[in-house]
Amino acid sequence: xxxxxxxxxPRQAYPVVxxxxxxxxxxxxxxxxxxxxxxxxxxxxxxxxxxxxxxNNVGKDLNGHIGIGxxxxxxxxxxxxxxxxxxxxxxxxxxxIHNGIIENYAQIKQELLSKGYTFKSDTDTEVLLNFIDDIKxxxxxxxxxxxxxxxxxxxxxxxxxxxxxxxxxxxxAARKGSPLVxxxxxxxxxxxxxxxxxxxxxxxxxxxxxxxIAIVRPDELILKNLGNEKxxxxxxxxxxxxxxxxxxxxxxxxxKEIHEQPETIHDCxxxxxxxxxxxxxxxxxxxxxxxxxxxxxxxxxxxxxxWHAGLIAEYVFEELxxxxxxxxxxxxxxxxxxxxxxxxxxxxxxxxxxxxxxxVALEKAKEQGAFIFGVVNVVGSSIARISHAGAYTHxxxxxxxxxxxxxxxxxxxxxxxxxxxxxxxxxxxxxxYLHLMNELDAVPDKVKQILADTSNIERIANxxxxxxxALFLGRGYNFPVALExxxxxxxxxxxxxxGYPAAExxxxxxxxxxxxxxxxxxxxxxxxxxxxxxxxxxxxxxxGRVVAVASEGDNVITTMSEDVMFVPExxxxxxxxLSTIPLQLLSYYVGVAKGYNVDMPRNLAKSxxxx
Length: 611
Ligand code: M6R
Fold this sequence. Notes:
Blueprint: E1 3-8, H1 13-24, E2 31-38, E3 40-47, H2 50-56, E4 66-72, E5 87-88, E6 94-102, H3 105-114, H4 124-139, H5 143-153, E7 156-164, E8 167-176, E9 181-184, E10 189-192, E11 204-207, E12 212-217, E13 220-225, E14 230-231, E15 235-237, H6 253-259, H7 261-269, E16 273-274, E17 279-280, H8 283-286, H9 289-293, E18 297-302, H10 304-321, E19 325-329, H11 330-333, E20 344-350, H12 356-367, E21 371-376, H13 382-386, E22 389-392, H14 405-425, H15 430-441, H16 443-452, H17 455-464, E23 469-474, H18 479-493, E24 496-501, E25 518-522, H19 529-541, E26 545-551, H20 555-560, E27 563-567, H21 576-593
Parallel strand pairs: 18-19, 18-20, 20-21, 21-22, 23-24, 23-25, 25-26, 26-27
Antiparallel strand pairs: 1-4, 1-10, 2-3, 2-4, 5-6, 6-7, 7-8, 8-12, 9-10, 9-11, 11-15, 12-13, 13-14, 16-17
Helix pairs in contact: 3-4, 4-5, 7-14, 7-16, 10-14, 10-18, 14-15, 16-21, 17-21, 18-21
5-amino-5-deoxy-1-O-phosphono-D-mannitol binds at residues 303-306, 350-352, 355, 358, 401-403, 491, 604, 607-608.
């Protein structure tokens, strides 16, 4: 969380930095700020969005060829002008922005207070900045050296950018745990939390590694480790198009990303799922087929929507590969003492590839000898880099905070993996394997069908928008889809929603049912269908308002439901790829009907790089 941008070169820095911050606003939007050096060190910051900062800066002198900017997701200290970044050191000489958490900041702050320092904000960042400035003064050393000394004391995660009043050319950056990309231009450099602010200026980038410090000037990039040894920057070519990070005529990124799914799922399958030859080509799997086929156990490790993808994959892998699967919340896994042994395969699922809890959980499992397979969307991200092998989801940049196209990309990758491993292992017949390949191949067109007319879903959203609570129920492969539907509604519309296995509802949640409660059943035609129909009857008998996601042509469920959202029929293993789409749209339209900012829901951030 938090987005950071930096620029040094011949252009005016302010417009470059502000434009970059707008691209990174999905990472947090509690406040925004920019620091520039132009003779003096000037800091401009404001509570709220980047647009509020811009408005506040109208008429001010914003000249300068070096600048750093920050968009904040608050951790230490409420969202306010004074807690906004950049922070300025007490001496006024340094300005710094930070993404991450300094865990031992309270102790360092105490030491600085006893030396007479005072603080203007409640942030851990201001503490670290004054600590660096204090080391610089006491040791009469450079900012770079002071930073290196300070970082050896720091516990926690950080990506920081630091500029100094006396140096109108240099940005000093450091990273541990929070991402940093440096774009290499001609006589200029761009720094950012991800590549989206950089893409329009250059395609050549360097991903900075943990424990590295970058000294960045217009025509020079020096990378060093914390031991002051030079590192060779590894230049990567970006494979990202500018059009993909713009709204392209849609009102919101979320709606654009929902509608991109026929194309993103197709991109994910393309070249891998070869129906004509009956082959699934996935290098990451093929190169490690023995480890995967002979795995004693698979552990899916993820958070949020990615965790729901893991739950669906649990059903699919156990069915097709007969390998025991456990699905772990990364945040729990990392802190307990999990039993992980050689022979275990960890599948890490993450859109951003930067989720702090997932990253640390993987590091822990790796230390214990597990094989790590990453299912990641963002190319070159930290999780992609620490995995032994992996498969990208190829969903393209996902900007809306609510994950949609990345989720279906994860499902497509996981389903192909299960098919490939199951077939290699001999746990599915050739006939079933080929049938499921064909079913997967048909998904992009079926998603297109669902998206062709969304007016019924919009109508349903408007009808139920004032509900205070909602239940989402499903069975089998559709149970995690119900969980995901509830999460989407919560995050976008702020309506309290619970997801449950439909049969489990009798053990408690049914007490919530009355004539006001919308109960959304994910009830496509599958082997659980008769059972879920009984559950629908149980809710109806208690006057709950039944809304169903059902298979086209189902005339039974229509007689029991107030409203129905249809999806094309498909094999039950593949069903989540279709049944999730109406629920994405439902939450989108409810959020819009309530007048909320669906791309930037309150309190959330896209990339959760703090624990
Ligand atoms: O980037 P990741 O997939 O690791 O992120 C995990 C969760 O933070 C994420 O899925 C979150 O739950 C989304 N806001 C859901 O829409």
